[in-house]
Write a structure and sequence with these properties.
With 139 residues, the chain is α+β, with helices and mostly antiparallel strands. It is built from three helices and seven strands; from the N terminus they run ββααβββββα. Strands 5-2-4-3-7 form a five-stranded antiparallel beta sheet. It has a two-stranded antiparallel ribbon with strand order 1-6. β3 and β4 form a beta hairpin. It starts with 16 loop residues before the first strand and ends in an 8-residue tail after the last helix. The mean pLDDT is 87.
Length: 139
């Protein structure tokens, strides 16, 4: 019986495969400068779900539940994007954790999705630390 990760996880080789967002998960695309170290990844600690690192684009991708970030105020999160049904990302095989290409920064284990509320709180703190305070934009 296939698990939900087996439906989108590349099964062999060392190469990442393009997978569509908006089917099994949405993606939060975060610049490395906001995502690594003691910033977002450090703030989430063991509560983070799976995280993909793309060294070519210098970003981390967090997987979150479908449409769970629809109400986020993105003006407070410059440089961060939420991708859904119109995007594809490179997903590495489960054992690809090192090397020069796309790899798992945090591999899937049990629950591979990150809690969107916890991720949003960590992103706000990390963005504030990296870029200074942000003001909410009135519309």
């Amino acid at each position: 019986m296939a698990t939900s990760t087996e439906l989108w996880m590349p099964t062999s080789g060392r190469s990442a495969e393009l997978q569509p967002a908006g089917r099994s998960w949405d993606v939060v695309r975060v610049p490395l400068s906001i995502g690594i170290g003691n910033r977002t990844l450090g703030l989430l600690g063991d509560t983070t779900g799976a995280v993909i690192q793309n060294p070519f684009d210098e970003v981390l991708y967090w997987l979150i539940a479908l449409r769970s970030a629809e109400t986020w105020d993105m003006t407070l999160l410059p440089g961060i994007q939420v991708w859904g049904a119109t995007a594809y990302i490179e997903v590495p095989p489960i054992d690809c954790r090192k090397g020069p290409g796309v790899r798992w920064r945090v591999p899937p284990r049990g629950q591979y999705l990150t809690d969107p509320g916890a991720l949003l709180a960590a992103l706000k703190t990390a963005t504030h630390e990296a870029l200074g305070p942000r003001k909410k934009v009135s519309r």
